[in-house]
Structure formats: C-alpha cells, structure tokens
Amino acid sequence: MQQVPASPAVLRPQRLVFGDLILALRQGWETFQNLLGPSLAWAGLDVAMGLFFLGIAGKMQVAPMVLPLGIGFLLVAPLLLIGFFPLMRAWEQGHKPRFQQALLAIRQAPGGFWVIGGICIFLFLIWISDAAVLYAFMIGPEPLPYAAPLLIPLKPSVIPFLFWSSLMGLALAFALFIIASFSVPLLYEQRLSLTAAISASVRAVFQNALVSFLWGWIFSGLLVISVLGLPLLFITLPVLAYACFFLYRRAFPLAEAA
User: Contact, 10 vs 193, CB < 8 A?
Assistant: First the structure.
C-alpha cells in the first residue's frame, strides 16, 4: 500500500459544516458509480455475511433479533469499510481499481487497525449476548418466524424489546463511532499511531459535535435499514464508505501531512 507523506505526531482536525454531509453523500454516490464493479464485489461479501446471520435468525425463529443483528453491523462497520478505501485511492491516483486491492487492504492493514477490529468484534459479541438475554427475558421461548412485510412480527411483547435493544445497541455503536470514525482511515493511510489516531478521532468528533452526530445518525439509520432490506446493502455500504473517506479527508486534509 502506498503511504501518504509522513505526518506530525498530532493532526488538528478541521471544522466541518452541515453542507459537508451533502457533499460527502454526493461524492460517495459518484465514486460508487465510477467504481461499480469492485464496489459491488466487496459489498457482496458483506451482504453474504448479513444473509448468513439473517438465515440463522430465521432458522431459530427469533425474527425480532433481526434488528439487534442490524445494529451489530454498525459495530463491525470499520472492518467492512476498509476494503473500499484502496479502491478509492487507486481511482484517485489514476489506476484501475480491482477487487484484489480490497482483499490486499485486509492483509496489509497496520497493526493498529486490527486492535480496533478486535474491539469491534469484542463489542459485537457482547452486544449479541446481551440482546439474546434481553430477548429471553422480554419475549421468551415463543417461536417467532419472519413476517411480511417488515420481517419482524410486531406483537405486544416484541415492541418493548425492539425499543430497549435499539437503545442499548445504538449507545455502543455511538461510543465506537467516536473512536473509530476517523481513526480507521488515519491508520489505513498510516498517518498516525494507534493512540494518536484514536485521540485525533475523538477530537474531530467533539470539535464538530453537531455535524458528527448527525452523520452518525444518517450512517446508522441507512445501514440498519439496509440490513433489514439486505439487497440495499449493495448500494448503501459502498456509498457510505466513500462518503466516510471524503469526510475524513475534509477533517484531516493531506496538506497537513506535508
């Protein structure tokens, strides 16, 4: 992976405005259109993972667990998005992006990324375990297969479970968003060490609190809806990944690395 120029030990995040979110989504959509083939191929791996978990929930007839699984996708999102970054980098540099570059990004990812990845997986396992306990307590052993059109049967015992599990899961997801939203691309481009990248991400989020948390809601909402309507993930995941990379570059321009 080609590195950006060496950077100082501390990067100062730039101010983001609400208009940047519109520009990011537009840039994400345009990049997705330009990188359609490899983007769909990498998204296909993530869709297959989602289909696997939805299949398990359907087989076990625990349809209300679909929403916690969708929120669980937010907790592993940093692991899913990194495959899109080298595609965008190759396109920026005038090279033809290939699916193999996404696979290489996983192999060549720096150690700091895997630390954050380990945190993501750890939180995902904790979250699914807690959601399962909450399910057993609030719904019990009653079989609940998928029901059209929302997959989830909205019975009286299900609605409180969906509310409380969503509240718990989104709290975890936003905590992870604060430390990972900017640190993952900073680590991918090897501009900072792990602790410096996390610190920079926290500063960037709180310095741009209103914009950052609105972006967090947009990102979370689109991703969870896409998991529930799984084919949508082929589009929303790459668009959001490229939009995230655009916002990262707005907050930490490469000119600072000069």
Answer: no
Output the six-digit token pair for 219: 């990102």
Residues 20, 247: contact at Cβ < 8 Å?
Answer: yes
Residue 212 tokens read as 């950052």
Helix axis angle for 66-75 and 111-138, nearest 10°, is 160
pLDDT category at 146 given cuts 50, 70, 90 is confident
Judge contact between 91 and 34, C-beta under 8 A. Answer: yes
- DSSP state for residue 209 in the 8-state scheme: H
Spatial contact of 182 and 248, defined as CB atoms under 8 Å apart: yes
Q: Which of 126, 155, 125 is nearest to 64 (CA)?
A: 155
State whether residue 144 is helix, strand or coil: strand
Q: What is the pTM of this model?
A: 0.88
Rounded Cα gap, residues 4 and 188, in angstroms: 10
Closest C-alpha among 120, 125, 117 to residue 75: 120
**Angle of CA points 191, 197, 220, to nearest 5°:** 115
Q: Taking 60 as the threshold, does the pLDDT of residue 5 lie above it?
A: no
Q: Are 75 and 124 in contact (CB under 8 A)?
A: yes
